[in-house]
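Escalation from tier 1.

The customer reports that the assembly of two entities below gives different structure tokens on two consecutive runs. Tier 1 could not reproduce it. I'm attaching the input and our single run for tier 2 to review.
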Amino acid sequence: MATIVCDVNETLLDLAGLDGPFTEAFCERAEEVKRLWFARLLHTSTVMTTVGTWQDFGVVARTVLRDTADRLGLPLEDAQAGDLVGGMRRLRAHPDVVDGIAALVGAGHRVVALTNSGQATAEAQLAHAGLDVLLDRILSVDPTLRFKPDPAVYAHAADELGAKPGDLVMVAAHDWDCAGAMRCGWRSGFVSRPGQTYNPLLQPPTWRAPDLLALATAIGDGR
Amino acid sequence: MATIVCDVNETLLDLAGLDGPFTEAFCERAEEVKRLWFARLLHTSTVMTTVGTWQDFGVVARTVLRDTADRLGLPLEDAQAGDLVGGMRRLRAHPDVVDGIAALVGAGHRVVALTNSGQATAEAQLAHAGLDVLLDRILSVDPTLRFKPDPAVYAHAADELGAKPGDLVMVAAHDWDCAGAMRCGWRSGFVSRPGQTYNPLLQPPTWRAPDLLALATAIGDGR
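Tier 1 run:
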């Protein structure tokens, strides 16, 4: 029995929900913009933590999207950037997620969420996707004024959950989230969603599987 | 009078030198691959520092390039990735750099380099570009086993240079490098090279200018 801590964006929720609006805004360059935006968003949030500044993840997402469009020479109004980023509140769960959470709960685990999204955004996202009722807790990085993979975030989550690091499993479609949690003594499960790979230079995850249901099987009773 | 600490890749040296080889490898997607690769390289190096792992920057660059090609579904052999990243040793200086360094030295400043590149790579890069003879010191992050913008790197550089933070100016085409140094009490000069922007969520730089020569004028005697 363990506490399974699930990342939200890309791990539980499918960013493909942004494809329509991005295609409307950027036509044939939509996929390129989306990829570059998200890579730069992750870099920027990590840098902000390293240099000791803070803003809500949604504000960072909007700022970086505007800037990414600028750098590519693509026009984008502030309001339009806000609409596109607002689409993150209306994502669907990946099709394996409901069964995956059920399997984890069935095996006796407690399942919670831990996200870089702000608390209100995270709650709206998971309610829209119908996952809020399946999760024991929804935790945001907000109280730490830092972003994952900073150690302070995992320490805060462990504290909130009243769990020892060895009883916690970070489940994410991002290698950096798994590695960050493992640095704090957690175990980790990597969900290798399409397009997600695990950097061989980082500590490998404890478990890995292509989706959450398969990962639940791999984790078993978590021993 | 101050010690002017210049970043190397993109700040002194022009990554446009990679355009030919990238176009050979990726045809019409070369620019997209290069942008995404560099954004993911910066994210990955920052993450590695946050989670406490280390590898030479060139190894990280090669690994992330292979992985970026994979994610985009573009074929790339290991050897080819090595050749492309090896091209970073043969970049030219931006056309304003020699005059910019001369102007800074003429104003009485000491001018040095501080880079995420490994020591041997940095020396080869700056020798190839003819800048080694103009620089007082070439410092790499190597001894710290961390990457910029981690505070330990700037502390190490200050120590090596025997300078107080207030007498140091980080000069970079990257907002995260300026902000990282400022967090450590340094001042900073942002070189707004084409395609480089300064994230408004980060502490603004002390000075900013479109190239190194203009920045030297802006800095003046550094008071």
